Amino acid sequence: MGRFDKVRSIGASYIGSTPALGAGRPSSILGAPTNKMIKIITSPTSKEELKASAHGTFASLVKAVVDIEQEIMAMGGELHADEEAVLIENGSKNNNLWGINIHFNEPESKWIEFDSMINLKPSLGNRNRSVDNIEIQEKIKKIVSRLIK
Fold it and tell me: Fewer beta carbons within 10 Å, N or C terminal of the chain?
């Protein structure tokens, strides 16, 4: 049985609490600490589940990290870096991970915002917070469309 077989069978699964990057962070420095659960999404989940992952400050959006190789995504973290860490701990490779914001109150055609610090990947030619490669953007859109119903 592969590491995601159990997760795939139930769709969305709680993997663990926010990792060290987000947990216990002094609130005066980087924001309030969080113990919100990060989920790895491997099969379709509902828009309601997506909305439930929104944080107070970001009530109309959900931060997510998409693995374009495994075609999965993590959501529920306060920072993209938190979700990235969970995916890496579960076997994803950094070069395949891209941070997005999903604006679920917008029409689906305008849901995805390609903006995250984890997208800075000079070795891959991505020198800003966006996703410059159109092929990667299209892969991300396809994965999100398949996973959020």
Answer: N
In the numeric block, the tokens 């579960």 are attached to 90
Express each pLDDT in 73-130 by its tens digit. Answer: 999 888 999 999 999 999 999 999 999 999 988 988 899 999 999 999 999 999 999 9
Strand 37-41 and strand 72-75: the pairing is antiparallel
Identity at 119, one-letter amino acid code:
N
Cα(56)–Cα(91) distance, rounded to whole angstroms?
30
In the predicted model, what is the mean pLDDT of residues 36-45?
90
What's the chain's Rg over C-alpha atoms? Answer: 14
Q: Are 102 and 111 in contact (CB under 8 A)?
A: yes
Single pTM value for the model: 0.77
- Residue where the block lists tokens 């990057």: 21
* Of 68, 147, 81, residue with least CA distance to 117: 81
